[in-house]
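FW: tagging you since you asked about this chain on Friday. Here's the raw sequence from the shared folder, copied in full. Didn't touch anything.
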Amino acid sequence: MNQLRCRDLHPGDLMLKFNAGGATNRIIALGQRMAAQLNPQVVHAGVMFDKTYIVEASGGGIHASDMRVQNKAFGYVVYRPRNGAIANGAGTCAKMMFDIQARHGKLKYSVPGAVKSLFPGGATAPHSPDAMDVLLDRILEGRTQRFFCSQFVVYVYQFVAEQNGIRADTVFRARDAKVSPSALASLLQQNGHFDEAGYMMPNER
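HL: got it, structure written out here
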């Protein structure tokens, strides 16, 4: 893999963050390991909306962080959509969600959803085109909606795929959007819609 800097990133890049050693990261990695999931050291996910800002769901809900400042100390593996329309759409969709959160503050973080994602069948989420449209309508209306990091990421790419005439369940072969960061990493490793673009080392931007 190539080592990437911010100048190499594209809107719509999917970012998988590695365990940085903090308490929350250690808890997530331990939970994924105890659930016998592969890639337990992948503990977080987000979507780039330009070369420097990542949109992600964490304790404060949907927000944007500067890769050169707030997220500078973290390491990532970067996956890039092969379809340019999906890539650009994902960056735009993620930015839209961030803007909605800035206006209404209703896109909260889901701790129960993150926990349930460790257990197959432990949670359900909208996955049909109609259900995803209903969810987007709720968000646009400013109603409360909860996401955890990898659920948010999967929803963004599945929604944008459907808008481009591509079935959501072919982008990620999981009907349930509530997949853990570790499970998302597994889904990406042999995914025809994404290429592994490279990695970002901590403190090298």
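FW: The chain has a mean pLDDT of 92.
HL: agreed, and Residues 8 and 51 are 7 Å apart (CA to CA).
FW: great, closing this out.
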